[in-house]
Amino acid sequence: MKKTVAIVGRPNVGKSTLFNRLVGERISIVEDTPGVTRDRIFADVSWLNYSFTLIDTGGIETDTDNLIPEMMRKQAQIAIDMADVIMFVVDGKAGLVPQDFEVADLLRKSKKPVIVIVNKVDNSRLPDDYYDFYQLGFDNMYAISSTQGLGLGDMLDEIVALFPKEELLEVEDNSIKVAIIGKPNAGKSSILNALIGEERTIVSPIAGTTRDAIDEKCNINGIDYTFIDTAGIRKKNKIYDNIEKYSVLRAYSAIEKADVVLVVIDATTMVTEQDTKIAGLAHEAGKCVIVVVNKWDLIQKETNTMRDYTSDVRNSLAYMQYAPVEFISAKTGKRLNNIVELINKVYESGRKRLSTGVLNDVIGDAVMLNQPPSDKGKRLKIYYATQTGVLPPTFVIFINDKELFHFSYQRYLENKIRESFGFDGTVIKIIPREKG
Ligand code: GDP
Ligand code: GDP
């Protein structure tokens, strides 16, 4: 299970500098998803054998930005809610200031491991008042320089060492993990209730997690499901709901853990910019996706209404043509049963494995039907393909020259694979590899 690390501290101590330093070029944008502006408040960082999500809470704008103490309190609370380890950054140049104590008091109340990062120590000499920072009451302290890149390795070693240990004998969990995401008021908790009911749920925090997220398990028609972060869905929190980046962040951490993502769109507002952003995260994570247009009972319907709405969704979420779109009402229960069937179906797509023989037959036919492109007298040659993974289905295609394997031809092959084998509701990843 992927861990989360949050950076907190008063303004100007260097939180975002440190974030950028750690994330750096490591953000690999696999595919440019149109309409998805990158929120640089969270990203993945790899260190040794670990990979964790890093959050810069300083980048989360709150509705109280002009009141610094209140802003710091909210940012610290978000860190406490979400993180496995908290990086508490202070300014080694400025020394200890009263605001640092305010942050420290908040963090101490949480039971999360905290490490104090004394930033802006730009050379090997510790500042004279370095040891004052122990007054904050935390044992773990590291001197670093975000701008010079000093001390980061030792600090990262300590962070990963502080990750909570997974329970050794974790029961094998074969349930389908489902995340329900969407903007506030789209109807996520209504859908969750309608799907699994209020009474039937067994609340069971997954072993090894220390954060507030609660996952709920249930069994529908003989199949086990785990709904991710139901606490985040059910808990109504006006303050956080209004912080858009927080909603996006919460969705991101739920998506990470999910196999299938329900992207809930409010039919009365249709696809908004925030929806595009959130749906884009599910796409980029390569998860199985279903677009659920909720509150369909509120829409005045004529002959072509559903068709028009579908094309609106298709246009706004152009990068996920593969995702089924379903129109439901959590209130009346209309077509809700279809959702469960769709979850099963897209999950099956995502886990489908093709034999190399069958796959190469289809690719061979496709190549015959539509000759690969050539450039400056050199033609793309496709030797053979093999499926290397599932969730999402991943195909390595061996070719002569990557330069010649244009996106449009990749798309063509993808479509041929889809025509022959389905793969509804899932991304297909194609990895070209040159064969010498
Ligand atoms: P934030 O408000 O905590 O996110 O702080 P910023 O990352 O915006 O940094 C505030 C200021 O401190 C900027 O001018 C940075 O260039 C500077 N700064 C950040 N890290 C270091 C460092 O390691 N050494 C020095 N000398 N300056 C730093
Ligand atoms: P969440 O913030 O995404 O979890 O949204 P909620 O499930 O709390 O729903 C927000 C509001 O929309 C509530 O007042 C619900 O009663 C209402 N609502 C949810 N689903 C439907 C629906 O299908 N039809 C109608 N008419 N109202 C709905």
From TrEMBL:
It holds the Pfam family KH_dom-like. InterPro entries: AAA+_ATPase, G_ENGA, GTP-bd, GTPase_Der, KH_dom-like, KH_dom-like_a/b, P-loop_NTPase, Small_GTP-bd. Associates with the 50S ribosomal subunit. Keywords: GTP-binding, Nucleotide-binding, Repeat, Ribosome biogenesis. Residues 3-167, 176-351 form the EngA-type G domain. SMART domains: AAA (SM00382). Signal peptide: none annotated. It comes from Peptoanaerobacter stomatis. GTP 2 binds at residues 182-189, 229-233, 294-297. GO terms for molecular function: GTP binding; ribosome binding. It comes from the Bacteria. GO terms for biological process: ribosome biogenesis. Belongs to the TRAFAC class TrmE-Era-EngA-EngB-Septin-like GTPase superfamily. EngA (Der) GTPase family. CDD domains: EngA1, EngA2. GTPase that plays an essential role in the late steps of ribosome biogenesis. This is GTPase Der. GTP 1 binds at residues 9-16, 56-60, 119-122.
